[in-house]
Each structure stands twice: as C-alpha cells, then as structure tokens.
Design goal:
Elements: E1 6-12, H1 16-22, H2 24-34, E2 43-49, E3 63-69, E4 77-79, E5 91-93, H3 100-117, H4 160-173, H5 214-217, H6 221-224
Antiparallel strand pairs: 1-2, 2-3, 4-5
Helix pairs in contact: 2-3, 3-4
Protein name: Glucose-methanol-choline oxidoreductase C-terminal domain-containing protein
Pfam family, one: GMC_oxred_C
Cofactor: FAD
Length: 232
C-alpha cells in the first residue's frame, strides 16, 4: 500500500542510430524542437510491478512497461456548443496522434522498452494479448521463452508490417496521462493559443485565463518570437 508499483523510470532522447529508426516522420519535429535543446527528453519509459491493463490474464507474475511522449505535437480542441445552455454537450476532439511524429515516438519507445525488458534476469516471455498483433512468421512475434537474451544479443528486427502493427496497437491503446498540462494553450491566437501576452482571452472582453501551461510557455520561444515575455 506504500507503493504505486512504478518502481523505475527513465527519460530518453534518441541518438543518431535511434533517429534513423524514428524515420522522416520525426525528423522535422526533432530539428525544430529537440536538436538544440538537450534538456528536453523525447519520451518517458517506466515499469510497473504487475499487469496494469483492466482485462483478465492467466494467474502468474507480471511486469508492465509504459511509455509516453514528453512533448506531444498533436493538439486537440474543446468548444462550447451553446451560448445560453451551460449543460449543452461540448464539441470535443482529443487530437491524439494526429501528428505522425507522435506516432513515430511511441513506436520507437515500444521497441526500446521491449529490448530493455527482454534482457532482465527474470524475463520469461511476453503475453501476446498485451502486444501488437505481429504475424506468426515475424521475428517480432511474442510468446513465452525460457529466459532472457544476452546483453550482447542483437535487437529484434522489425519489418514494415511489424511497424504497422505497432502503430495500430498504439492507436488503440493510447490514453491520456494523469498529469495533463495545457488545457488552454497560454500563447497567441495566431500560434494556436487563447491569450495575448497580458493573459487576456482572445475574442472576449474582461476575461483573463491562467492555465497550467503557463509554466511551459513562460519566456518560451512562442513569445520570444514576438519579443514579449509572459509575466505572472
């Protein structure tokens, strides 16, 4: 009861070889946002003691590995549908994985994390229902094994079909994290935000908003481009 079962985690940035694996879908995002910012991790990986997905599995010992993007490029939207009825349903679109770069990151994270786990001393294989649906003749297929691979063993080789299976798995399994940030983007309307540099809501009079994403955009490049700085 004193543990949340997440016993270890790591924040990662891709090296030169990893960038090749991430492919052209991530190249522009890397060059624009990460290449000159060594303090920005691309992805988080963490392990949990147990099977964390809410569906029945055979009784045995499990370890789960989760991963998420640290700076997702995809953006959603939420809009009111009535100016008079506060109970009217919202027009909501999560925007999950609308940017190809986010899908590439999750694909790379899956592969990276899998290589770590299959080298752990207690590794005895993978539960197929908790993984992408790889073809029966694929090197990436999942199943039980007698023990871990050697640290020096080569990585799993994934085909284009395998990558498609991983992408489909991530599309079906993706969900928001518990620590979402930036419901209202604290940046100019022209950049997809909702406020000016005095926190006035665009298109509305006498209303200011301070969302948690102000932590991210305080003095950040979105405002540096306009030679202004957010002030609390």
């Amino acid at each position: 009861m004193a543990s949340n079962a997440i016993d270890a985690g790591i924040k990662l940035r891709p090296n030169t070889e990893d960038l090749k694996d991430l492919g052209p879908a991530f190249e522009s995002r890397w060059n624009e946002y990460f290449a000159d910012a060594p303090d920005k991790p691309v992805v988080w990986l963490g392990i949990a003691s147990g099977h964390v997905k809410p569906y029945p599995v055979p009784p045995r010992k499990y370890l789960s590995l989760g991963y998420h993007t640290e700076y997702a490029a995809s953006r959603g939207r939420v809009c009111i549908t009535s100016g008079t009825d506060p109970h009217a349903p919202l027009n909501f679109d999560s925007g999950f994985l609308t940017e190809a770069s986010d899908l590439a990151i999750l694909r790379w994270a899956y592969k990276f994390g899998r290589e770590i786990v299959r080298r752990m001393s207690f590794f005895r294989g993978e539960y197929p229902e908790g993984h992408p649906a790889f073809a029966a003749d694929s090197e990436a297929r999942c199943g039980e094994v007698s023990g871990p691979v050697e640290m020096s063993d080569p990585k799993i080789k994934y085909t284009a079909k395998d990558d498609e299976a991983i992408d489909e798995w991530n599309r079906r399994a993706v969900e928001t994290c518990w620590h979402s940030l930036g419901t209202c983007a604290m940046k100019p309307r022209d950049d997809g935000g909702v406020v000016d540099n005095r926190l006035n809501v665009s298109g509305v009079q006498n209303l200011k908003v301070v969302g948690m994403s102000i932590c991210k955009f305080q003095g950040h490049s979105e405002y540096d481009k306009k030679s202004t700085t957010l002030r609390m």
